[in-house]
Amino acid sequence: MARVPLLQLSDISLTFGGDPIFDDLSLVVQPGDRVALVGRNGSGKSTLMKVMGGLVEPDKGEVVPGPGVSVGYMEQDPEMAGFSTLGDFAIHGLEPSDLYKVERAGEGLKFDPARPVNTASGGERRRAALARLMAEAPDLMLLDEPTNHLDIEAIAWLETELKTTRAGFVLISHDRAFLRELTRATLWIDRGSVRRQEKGFDAFEAWRDTVWDEEDTARHKLNRKIKAEARWAVEGISARRKRNMGRVRALQDLRWERASQIKRQGAAAMALDAGPKSGRKVLEANGISKSYDGQVILEPFSLKVQRGDRIAFVGPNGVGKTTLLKMLIGEVAPDTGTVTMGTNLELAVFDQARSKLDPDASLWDSLTSDPDMRVSGKADQVMVRGNPKHVVGYLKEFLFDEAQARAPVRSLSGGGKARLLLARIMARQSNVLVLDEPTNDLDVETLDLLQDLLGQYDGTVLLVSHDRDFLDRVAVTTIAMEGDGKATVYAGGWSDYQSQRGPRETAQPVETVRKTGAIAPKSKQEMKAGLSFTEKHRLEALPAEIERLEAEMAKLQELLSDPDLYAREPVKFRKATEALAERQEKLDAAEEEWLTLEEKADA
Description:
Blueprint: E1 7-14, E2 22-29, E3 34-38, H1 45-52, E4 60-65, E5 71-74, H2 86-91, H3 99-109, H4 122-136, E6 140-144, H5 152-164, E7 168-172, H6 176-182, E8 185-190, E9 193-197, H7 204-239, H8 245-260, E10 281-292, E11 295-306, E12 310-314, H9 321-328, E13 336-341, E14 347-350, H10 363-368, E15 374-375, E16 378-384, E17 387-390, H11 391-397, H12 414-426, E18 432-436, H13 444-456, E19 460-464, H14 468-474, E20 477-481, E21 487-491, H15 494-501, E22 510-512, E23 519-521, H16 524-528, H17 533-560, H18 565-568, H19 570-602
Parallel strand pairs: 3-7, 3-8, 5-6, 6-7, 12-19, 12-20, 14-18, 18-19
Antiparallel strand pairs: 1-2, 1-4, 8-9, 10-11, 10-13, 15-16, 16-17, 20-21, 22-23
């Protein structure tokens, strides 16, 4: 028996007024599908997902969900106008019986439901949107970069949830380990077309390379054929008074075919110049510690960093990884202890907040206003590793086109902002790279290139990341911070750290300490005092639910009071009787729950 698709796209075309993003695109998502949606930055992955979710209307074609199928989309930048807290947003539209799912997802994803919307960061908003989607549990989940702004523990929680769900999902992510673990099929967007392979992401790169090799072979054969036909056309003029016009038209068709082929986007022309060598000792920390408002971020900690080290800092969000990093490079003073810097150091810093990028400045101004890149008297040139380059030419090396040069930074995607920041730090010579979450929003090909560059870099790398695959590829030392104020040094990358540390205790419920961002377990006293966020909303919602159940039962009892109903419509009588019994059971449970919560609130 044929399965009914969860979603079907037929002959979709979309242009946004310019060149086609998609043209005559068709695809089907089946029940149980676990699909990786991959492609280069700017290829249209997020746009396609919005078309699938009904948020973007195609110029032509149809988007048809299966009968009764619910489709949920996790927005990258959720609109929260009208909501006072993240929790209010997360529970909006949910049935009262499903509110507990938000609290459960909130604990796994580490977001504070009481956080006011107007003070929440972009990452907190995304976590609230993800918690809402997980609580809604639609038949088809569309997840656009769900792991961005999640720490490794939250990623592991989400991984487990998606492994056990019966829903289908389509997933965009830069996290290779996440994609490998979860996906069974791959949709690949490449130059406006979508290919599908019934294998997970683990097989994607080999498939992509095979397709490109076949393209290159076919293009080479086409060029040889055009060259041979063009030679015939030139020589035929002198050999024959009348040319074979059919063959000439065929040559024109071949040339048109070659011209219509869309060139593949190349890799960003990123490069690193380590410049002059630093001293053998890059830095030495002795007994440094840090606390904020009585909350211990770091107990006394010592570390020696030698030239050429590749050190990764890992741990949950808010434990102090970035604070420790800033103490090591002199941006934050420790409460105790000292940090001694080595000689001849030239630092280049990639900060996760992209704070050095002015959102209102153009890409052009972002480069030319940088004092390290400014060329005296040249408004259209920047200094790149000691050599002047035209601004547009340098931007093109990082996959920006000429039209984007005067556009504001705020118009860029997350991947575009990451590439622009990389363009700034890679323009200068450095011998110490400080990279705080550099992998967010970068596509697979750019991540590959960045990893290769770091492997060849003749300097020192200090790295904060939640990308397990990237950590394994780059790090030779891992410093783990697990929220207890301790920083522990392990040899190797993420997998080595996991094997050395042994099994962990079961994670405690967590809440955000607002002033520091540190994660602290709830005490038993806190958990017993009053009602939780979900319990409070449940208590407020129960009277309306009880009233609704009583009204439904009254209608059913009125229907069943007809003495001729059983003889006239036995099926209807049976269904009404079953429905009455079901609602009586729900009413008893709701009244019991209300009584329990009232007693707890009074206590």
